[in-house]
Every structure is written in C-alpha cells, then in structure tokens.
Amino acid sequence: MDLKDKRIVVTGGAGFLGRAVVSTLHSRGCSSVFAPRKREYDLTDRANVQRLFQDFHPHLVVHLAGTVGGIGANRAKPGTFFYENAIMGIELIEQARRAGLEKLVLVGTVCAYPKFCPVPFREDDLWNGFPEETNAPYGIAKKSLLVQAQAYRREFGFNSIYLLPVNLYGPGDNFDPETSHVIPALIRNFLQAKEQKRDTVVVWGTGKATREFLYVGDAAEGIVLAAEKYEGEAPVNIGSGFEISVKDLVQLIARLTAFEGQIAWDCSKPDGQPRRKLDTSRAERELGFRAKVPFDEGLKKTIEWYLSSRG
C-alpha cells in the first residue's frame, strides 16, 4: 500500500505512540494524516465512530486509541479497561467495514499473551492460556479484536491486520503517578528522591520478573511498515528481542538518573507476568523490521526529555 496519497486517520494520534506514528507517516511524505481527539470523537459511542468516517473519508485507519495504564491502574479499573478497549475496537471495525475502508491496522498488546507463555512469545502461542491476572481484562479485550478482524476478513473480505507491540518507552511517555508504566514511573521516582534528598526508593515486587521494551520511534516504524507491506490475517509481534530483569532495569535507571540511595523492594505488591520477550522473526520476515535504538540510549533520551519537559 503506497501511503503518500492516502487519507489516513490515526486514532489516539495525540497520545504517546500516536504522535510517533503521525511523525513517521509525515516523514514518508503523507500529507493527509488526521489525529481526531477524544473530546470530538469518543470512540466508545457508535454515532461518533460513524461520524469519524463521514468526516474524514479515510483510506487507512491506524487504531491506537485505548484506555491504558500500569499494574495499579489495571487493578483499580478492570471493568473500565475491558469495556472501553473492547467497545472502541468492535465499533471501529464494524463501521470501517460498512464505510468500505481500504485497510485497518489494529494495534493490540503484549498483555494478551498467556501468563506462562513459553519464551520467546510466538504469535501461535497467543491462545494457549489465560493472561496474567492483573491485566487480563485489558489483554482479553484487545485480543478479541483479532478474532473480529479475522472473522470479518473471512466473511466480508475486510482488510485488517493485527500487531502485538511489546512494552513501549521513550520521550513523550506518560509520567502521571496514577497511570504510568514501569520506566517512566521509575525515572520520576528516582529523580524526585534526589530532589527531595530521600535516601530510599520503594519499588513494587521482587525484581525477578523480566520485561522487553521497545523505543517508541522503533514501534512507530514497525507499525507504518506493516501498513505499507503486510496483508495477512495472522498477528505480528513488534518488539526489540531484548529482555531485562526488573531488578537490572531498576539499577540501570538509578545509575542513569544518578540516584545513589537505597532501593527497597515491596514484595507485597505483584510482579505481574513472570517473563516477557517476543519472537520477532515474523516481523523481520514479513515487514523487514528490526529495532534500531539501543536500550541505554533510549533511556537516556527519555530521561533528558522528562527533565526538559518539566522546565
């Protein structure tokens, strides 16, 4: 799909990943890229989804809008996370089909994988178990959209693809203390501890869990490559192939933020999924995608952005 002359809607285009995707599309020479805001097009309402297609007449939609957050937010609002993520995707797919959309790119989540999935996570293992409990409502809501997309392809010939990105980080991330994910939460906590001259930072869990992280610019490149090149019904992992323990992650961020105090582990809090690492061979084979930004470099850029954004 040549994107240059296409009208493209990026739902969630004003968000963390959305801004990176919009920027990547512009770098490809795409001039008709729209990022509708939630206050104007609340996608949990069918009439608003219908109006989205009536107003923009897109050829391509990249669906990034979602209700998201870290472990704490998922535990606090599991019903909200399930309903809003499911209904947005369900309505978007149905109205896209009715509008005759050329292509829909659905962006899912690594949280859809089974809690005890063999590592590295392969796309074919997606249905071989229940997700980790703290984010299962979110993960299952997003995974249900893959079922709908495949069903619509078979019954209606509707062209949609489904991507599974791993945990993202980078400049522009969400640093809100109530909803942030692990990397921005740690950066904020260590820097605040330094400023407040506190000698201890408390971190959730045991530190034994592992995670894979992907720089947001790399993720945007993978998504745009998929929009250009991929037409299959099978889901595609988008990741870095790099795995790090939470303990090592915490120590690395402490060093990069120059925090020299103590780290206390609150083992009463959940670790989340024991391990996360994606098999990215399908993305490399089908899209020619491979992550480029080294983890240390990406973390430094994220810390620098956060410091500068605070003034």
Task: Please tell me about this protein's structure.
The protein is α/β, with parallel strands linked by helices. It has one domain (7-173, 212-243, 274-294): Rossmann fold, CATH 3.40.50.720. Helix content is 43%, strand content 15%. It contains ten helices and eleven strands. The protein has helices at residues 16-27, 46-56, 71-76, 78-99, 136-156, 182-195, 216-229, 246-256, 281-287, 295-309; strands spanning 7-11, 32-34, 60-63, 103-107, 160-165, 167-169, 200-204, 210-215, 236-238, 243-245, 262-266. The strands form three sheets. It has a six-stranded parallel sheet, sandwiched between helices. Helix 1 links the parallel strand 1 (7-11) and strand 2 (32-34). Helix 4 packs parallel to helix 5 and helix 6 (182-195) crosses helix 10. The protein is globular, with a radius of gyration of 19 Å. The termini are far apart. The model has no long low-confidence stretch (mean pLDDT 96).
Q: Could you name the ranges where pLDDT drops below 50 across 5 or more consecutive residues?
A: none
Return the string of H and E elements.
EHEHEHHEHEEHEEHEEHEHH
Report the strand count. 11
> What is the SS-derived class?
alpha/beta
**Cα-based radius of gyration, to the nearest Å:** 19 Å
Give the N-terminus to C-terminus distance in angstroms: 42 Å
Molecular shape: globular
CATH architecture designation: 3-Layer(aba) Sandwich
CATH superfamily: NAD(P)-binding Rossmann-like Domain
Approximately what portion of the residues adopt beta-strand conformation? 15-25%
The residue-averaged pLDDT reads: 96
- Percent range of helical residues: 40-55%
